[in-house]
Amino acid sequence: MGSPEQVADELESWIEETGLDGFNLTRIVTPESYEDFIDLVIPELQRRGSYKTAYEDGSLRKKLFPEGTDRLPQRHAGAAHRHI
């Protein structure tokens, strides 16, 4: 707990000390805990250059596997569920 600046300070210190590349958030009160983090802490981290302000187009799959495509190959078992 603390101000957005204090929370950002703590997160950045963990990154510097340990080399973390991300955080998993847990809720205290839903959805307010997430909303507070998004509305208060993320903008502070963005001002500091510690959090993205824009994202490249494309699916997560394409970003993780750039040699692939945005969709599973037709031969993959999961491709049968595209209609969902």
UniProtKB/TrEMBL annotation:
Name of protein: Monooxygenase, DszA protein
Keyword Zinc carried by entry: no
Naturally occurring in which organism (per UniProt): Pseudomonas syringae pv. maculicola
Entry's Gene Ontology molecular function annotations: monooxygenase activity; oxidoreductase activity, acting on paired donors, with incorporation or reduction of molecular oxygen
Cited PANTHER family: ALKANESULFONATE MONOOXYGENASE-RELATED, C2H2 FINGER DOMAIN TRANSCRIPTION FACTOR (EUROFUNG)-RELATED
Keywords: Flavoprotein, FMN, Monooxygenase, Oxidoreductase
Annotated spans, Disordered: 65-84
Entry-linked InterPro entries: Diverse_substr_monoxygenases, Luciferase-like_sf
